[in-house]
Structures are given as C-alpha cells and as structure tokens.
C-alpha cells in the first residue's frame, strides 16, 4: 500500500539491528547497558511491524495491525528511559532514584491502557515525547552538568534529530505520494537512532563500581 514508507521504516530497523548486535558484542552485563541494548531490539521490532503491517498491508490488517508496533515502541522508549534512570541514580538521593523507577512502571502501564482503549497513535506520540524528550533528555542533561558524560552529548544530538523528525511529521511536509512526510521523517529518525547507539557506547556508569567503557578510555588516551 505504501512501499516507500515500508522501505524507510526498514531503514530504521536495519540501524536498530546493527546497534543491538554491536552492543551485544561488547558484553556489558550491567542493567543500564542491557536495557539500552534491548531498546534497540524492541525498536527494531516496532519499526519492522510498523512499516510492514502498519503501512504496507494496512488494507488487510486495519488499525489493529498497528497495535503490536505501537506497543513495541512504547516498551523500547520505557527501556531507554529506565537505563537513563540507572545512569542518574548514583547522583541522586536513594529515595529519588526509587521514585523515578516506579514512575517508569506507572507511566508505561497508563499509556498501554490508554492506547489499547483509544487506538489513537497520538497517545503513542505523547508517550515518546514524554519518555525521550522530557525524561531521557532532562536526565541526561543533569548527568552532563554533573559529570560531563560523553554519552550524554550523543543523546542530545539524538534528541535534536528526533525533534526534526517530529517537525516534518507534524507539518506533513511531503514531496508527493511516493516520498511523503513519513518517509522524510524516517531519515532524521534513523540518524536519531544512530546517535542513541553512540550514546549507549560511551555512557559511563557512576555507581560504587564505576564502569568506564573502553571506547571512552581509548578516546581519552588518544586525545
């Protein structure tokens, strides 16, 4: 039904799969890194399902075909948000870290229920805005102010690319039916995913056993 949108969605899937497997090769066991890694897995599922069922075969599945992709994307956002909570936890009072953790569970549950009841994609968009533009960005801004974390800088770039994608989508800027606002938005979204991957590679965990990724050590020794 929308072949160009299927292809641009699968472009995002390819970036997600690349990020997932390359992060897996690094073998980082801490939950912060694992949750970021599974963000890319669920986002790969979301973009693949969204592209194939939600755009390619929408005439067969109807709006119901979009739901698995919507739910997968919300799980992905919640996972990265939770990883960011792990990132900031060592810098906060223990009680504040626990509050953020529980808020993450409540948020995902509420948005799941609202999406299932309304079948409205705007709920998914609001969740993405809340999770990536508010929680993740603000957490990483705090971490960067405290620690100048190298991963946070990449997440800022990812947020910028996400904002550009959202702008194209909101304005419905298109070059025609075969390269519409969905396809155009998927280009900065792919770049956003790439910068999230770079952020995941370079984020430092500041707990009692501080974890500094090899990529950060190599870049510091090189400079």
Automatic annotation (TrEMBL):
Protein name, as recorded: Uncharacterized protein
One Pfam family this sequence matches: DUF6962
Keywords: Membrane, Transmembrane, Transmembrane helix
Entry keyword Transmembrane: yes
Segments passing through the bilayer: 6-26, 38-61, 67-85, 97-117, 123-143, 155-172
Coiled coil: none
InterPro entries to which the protein is assigned, alphabetical: DUF6962
């Amino acid at each position: 039904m929308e072949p160009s949108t299927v292809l641009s969605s699968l472009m995002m899937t390819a970036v997600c799969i690349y990020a997932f497997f390359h992060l897996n090769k690094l073998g980082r066991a801490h939950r912060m890194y694992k949750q970021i890694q599974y963000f890319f897995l669920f986002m790969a599922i979301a973009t693949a399902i969204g592209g194939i069922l939600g755009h390619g075969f929408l005439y067969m599945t109807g709006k119901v075909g979009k739901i698995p992709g919507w739910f997968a994307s919300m799980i992905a956002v919640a996972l990265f948000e939770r990883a960011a909570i792990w990132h900031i936890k060592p810098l906060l009072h223990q009680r504040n870290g626990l509050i953020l953790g529980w808020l993450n569970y409540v948020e995902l549950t509420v948005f799941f229920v609202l999406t299932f009841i309304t079948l409205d994609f705007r709920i998914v968009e609001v969740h993405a805005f809340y999770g990536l533009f508010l929680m993740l960005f603000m957490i990483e801004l705090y971490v960067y102010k405290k620690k100048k974390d190298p991963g946070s800088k990449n997440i800022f770039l990812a947020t910028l690319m996400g904002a550009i994608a959202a702008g194209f989508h909101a304005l419905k800027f298109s070059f025609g039916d075969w390269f519409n606002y969905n396809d155009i938005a998927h280009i900065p979204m792919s770049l956003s995913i790439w910068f999230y991957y770079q952020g995941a590679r370079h984020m430092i965990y500041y707990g009692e056993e501080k974890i500094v990724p090899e990529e950060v050590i190599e870049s510091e020794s090189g400079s």
